[in-house]
Structures are given as structure tokens and as C-alpha cells.
Amino acid sequence: MDIFGIPLQAFLGQLMLGLVNGSFYAMLSLGLAVIFGLLGIVNFAHGALYMIGAYVAWMSLEYLGLNYWFALVMAPLVVGALGVVIERTLLRKLYKLDPLYGLLLTFGLALIAEGIFRDRFGVSGQQYPVPELLQGATNLGFMVLPNYRAWVIVASLAICLATWFTIERTRLGAYLRAGTENPALVQAFGINVPMMVMLTYAAGAGLAALAGVLAAPVIQVTPLMGSNLIIVVFAVVVIGGMGSILGSIITGLVLGLIEGLTKVFYPEASSIVVFVIMAIVLVIRPAGLFGKEA
Hints:
- It is a single chain.
- By secondary structure, the chain is mainly α.
- It has one domain.
- Helix content is 71%, strand content 3%.
- The mean pLDDT is 88.
């Protein structure tokens, strides 16, 4: 059976690849949306944190013999701790300044991190094996689905929805939102707002690291993996609406699918389709699809 002259299995395979990419877009844009929505920081270091998370997984296996499942827990903690250091020593001084200063600082941090890893590991990339439990594929009849790619989609959706629920539907999320809108009032109720802000940035960094661990068996672990992805992820955040948690999740998944379909029908446009959509959305709705108008 063909779809517009393309074999069904090839069409569905490309659609699945788009959904996997969309899962990474959703997780990374979610972390960016959390940091911008709650702290007002345009975190250009997010791609570097994603790359560091993948390298933590690779180094823990290469040097310590620790498996993938341990890395899923360790990498977000390590990168989250790095996020605490960045927020405490650098970002905290910029909250009352123009957001441009935060963008420039985090962009500089991304360049430093990429340079350090390029000097240490080169740019050829490292292979990270698929965990034994998730090796192989499942025959669905109409296509063969690699088990690891299915795991990436399910895990990403679960993490994204859990993060959205925490911020939008729990008391902790209400404290976070109130602390960013009126920190003096929240502080008066005995809530440690600076600690809450610090942990928010750490959580966003941890989400980036978790996406890096999930990506490590799919793509090569390389110092350039973050910079290759971050521009697309920023476009996803802009389309969904800066600071919109749900918008980042939905937009990331949908744009991954659109990108996958574009590779099937018009491969030459697959690298720019996200930016074309961003331009159209900004003309029609400058705040983004799910953003709040000023």
C-alpha cells in the first residue's frame, strides 16, 4: 500500500522518526519554557546542558561501568547541581536587568562548555549503546517499531505531562508562579523565594540533561549536539508561546511530526520548515499559539 506514491512502511517509519525528534523538541522546549516563564531568563545554555547530560551518561558507562538506568537518575542530578552553581554565582545578579544580559551570559556559557568538551573529546562523537532491555524491535504488522524509539516517546510524554501537572495543578506550582509575579509578598508568607528560584533553574537544567540521556543511544554523543538543536528548540518555544508549558509540549511534538512529513514529501525544505512556521505564527499571533498577549 502506498501513500502519495510512498510505501506505507517508509511513510510510517519517517513519521515515527519525526515523533522521536518531536519528543526531544518537547522536552528541551519544556525546560526552556519553565526557566523563562518562571525566571524570565532566555537560557541559551540549555543546549549545552543537554550535551553535558549525554556526556555524563557516556562517561559514567565508559569510566565507571554504570548502566543507562543509573545514568537516567545521575545525569539530571549532576547537571541540576551545575545549574545551582550557575544560578547562584551568575544569573542571580541579572534578574533585575534587561533579559538581553541573561541571553548573552548563557550564550557565553554555552560556548565555553562546548569548547571544553571539544578540546577533551574532539568532534567525531562517541557511541552510546542501547540498553539491553530495550534492544530489538516490535513488529506491529504495518511497520517494525524499534523498542528504544518507542521508549523515548513514552518516557518523554510522561515527563512532560508530569512537569506540566506539577507547575499548573499543584500547590508547589502555585508557589512558583506567585513567587515570580510578586516575590516580596510570597516572601512575607515565609516562603524562601530565592531558594525556590534556584531549584527551578536546577530543575530546568535537569530536564535538559534527561533529554540528553534519552538522546544518547539515538544519535552520537558529540560536543556539537546541543548547538545543532538549540536554535530549532528556541523556534519551538517561540511558536508555542514564550513561557507556555503546555504550548511547548504540544508544539514540540507537532513540529517534529511536520518536520518528519516534510522529509518524505519535500526533503529540501525539512531544515527550514520549522522557521517558516515560526515566521507565519509571529505575523499572525506575535505572542505564539499558546502565549498570552501583552
